């Protein structure tokens, strides 16, 4: 697994958490 792919996965998780927190 490349670092860019891992970073993209982390970004997705953070975006979901922030979205649920705002909603």
Characterise the protein shown here.
With 23 residues, this protein is mostly helical. The chain contains one helix and no strands. It has one helix at residues 3-22. The N and C termini lie far apart (32 Å).
Compile the SSE list and pairings:
Layout: H1 3-22
Mean residue pLDDT = 94
Q: Tell me the span between the first and last alpha carbons.
A: 32 Å
Radius of gyration: 10 Å
Strand % is under 5%
Helix content: over 70%
User: How large is the count of helical segments?
Assistant: 1
**What's the main sheet like?**
none
Structural category is: mainly alpha
H/E series: H
Shape: rod-shaped
Number of strands: 0
Quick structural gist:
By secondary structure, the chain is mainly α. It contains 1 helix and no strands.
């Amino acid at each position: 697994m490349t670092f860019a792919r891992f970073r993209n996965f982390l970004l997705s998780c953070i975006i979901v958490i922030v979205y649920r927190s705002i909603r």
